[in-house]
Amino acid sequence: MTTPTSDARPDLARLPVAGTEPTPAGPVPEPVPLRRRPAAGPTTVRRRLGQAAYLVVLLGATALFVYPLAWLVSASLKPKSQVFDNSLLPETVQWSNFVEVWQAGPVLRWVFNSATVGLMAATAVTLSSAFVAFGFAYFRFRWRGPLFGLVLATMMLPGAVTMIPTYLIWNQAGLVNTQVPLWAQNLFGSAFYIFLLRQFFLGIPRELFEAARVDGASHLTMFRRIALPLARPALVIVFVFELQASWSDLMKPLIYLQTPEYFTMPRGLKQIVDTVALSGEYHWEIAMAATLIATVPMIVVFAFTQRFVLDGIATTARQG
């Protein structure tokens, strides 16, 4: 029995590796050069500069709009001598300002009145404006264009022109010194909201209404089951805008309300300022605290509805 020598051993370098096939002899491919990121050209630099400028403008506008609210919060916590020092950080925090607000008048009652009047006014103008807007958007009748133009023309009338005749009407009805005139006028719709909702209703495919008519749906059913659900973003816009307008309105409560029990928050705030002024000195720290109390609810409402408001504005702008 002979032992194999080293010359009889197989050349391991020439043996194929398991799982691979021998590559045929041929020219070796040249290595592909790595792609380098191109240097920033003039267009890229201009685009970045434009984005930076847009960010600066956006931050400046944000600070411009946030500053009054920050100043109000700061002033509501300051003593009387420091209210107008334009410092956002009060040297002395005086929480008793909010206690004195509740002692100056029935603030909780005024907030409740404002919420009640605002909700009724917003609901009334939303439904009435939507009803009129649906009629102008769906029906085809003679003089539709001139009638719609006449509705829009009412926006050109200043509020001072109709203020006295409107007061005389409510006085004859015996509703002065009640909260009814603060919201019942919205039962007749608003020209601006009618225009806004009409543009939205025109974007709804008419085939949906025709199919409903074939199924035997009435016009009121189409308005309730098709038009209103599809126009939800626009309805939210109208509701929130009118709620904010009614909440901050001072003119109507100043004209129609004389009993403090019926006062809304703006009217009550004016009474606080006037009552304090009769003593010979203005306590603006109390007025600032009351103003903050009146402002916070609208901030909360917008925080919960901003998604619907922005979606509705974007959709209405596209359809317009």
Structure description:
- The protein is an all-alpha fold and 320 residues long.
- Helix 2 crosses helix 13 (284-319) and helix 12 (265-278) runs antiparallel to helix 13.
- The protein is flat.
- The chain has helices at residues 42-76, 96-104, 107-138, 144-153, 159-172, 180-183, 191-202, 206-214, 219-230, 232-247, 251-256, 265-278, 284-319.
- 65% of the residues lie in helices and 0% in strands.
- The chain has 13 helices and no strands.
C-alpha end-to-end distance: 102 Å
Shape: flat
Q: Which spans have pLDDT < 50 for at least 5 consecutive residues?
A: 1-8
Radius of gyration: 35 Å
Structural class of the helix and strand makeup? mainly alpha
Order of helices and strands: HHHHHHHHHHHHH
Helix content: 55-70%
What is the residue-mean pLDDT, rounded to a whole number? 83
Sheet having the most strands: none
Report the portion of residues in β strands: under 5%
Q: How many beta-strand runs?
A: 0
Secondary structure tally, helices:
13
